[in-house]
Amino acid sequence: PILLLSLQATTILSLLQSALPIDLVRGGIDRPPLGEGLSGVILALQLFLLVILQWPIGRWLSLYKQSFGLAISISNFCIGTLMLGLSAMWEEGILLILIAQVPLAIALAAFLPTATEAITQVTPIKYRGISMALFSQCFAISALIAPVIAGIIIDIQGNGMLIWLTMSLSCLSMLPLIS
Q1: Which pTM was predicted?
Q2: What is the distance between the alpha carbons of residues 40 and 21, in angstroms, rounded to a whole number?
Q3: How far apart are the first and last CA of the chain?
Q4: The predicted structure's pLDDT at residue 26
Q5: Furthest C-alpha separation in the chain
Q6: 58 exposed, middle or buried (CB, 10 Å; 0-12, 13-18, 19+)?
Q7: Which residues contact 153 (CB under 8 A, 6 or more apart)?
Q8: Which of 98-114 are b and which e, b meaning 16 or more Cβ less than 10 Å from the residue's Cβ?
């Protein structure tokens, strides 16, 4: 289950870096396209929030079991991607995009340290090297496949609403895997 959760999280991370900028510039169903400058500001906000939240969230989550941190991460990915998807249907969708950056940053800040620790906790010492290698491959697989599929969807649909709503639903389906 941890590798499936990792693949889910790294796919969203990859989509935030590849599909979100295109989605912002192309616009949504009702949301007008944003200029490249404003899109860049949103991406910078995303990174800024991650930088300032990483340490406090990591410290807070260290007080709990890894399953709690993974649940926080996947739940916030669910909320953030849902907001990105819904933003396409609202003329003022930029507000949802801006607000979505908070749960997305929380999700990323919770995922990175929690998943690494969870893998080392559940894997026997003898197999930790291979398990960390497989965990690293989640980043590679996501970076290779997700942007291509997202690009095709955006080209066909004209926006990223389907991508974000699909990610939100898939996060929701992952919650029962966390134990």
Answers
A1: 0.91
A2: 8
A3: 9
A4: 95
A5: 54
A6: middle
A7: 160, 162, 163
A8: eebbbbbbbbbbbbbbb
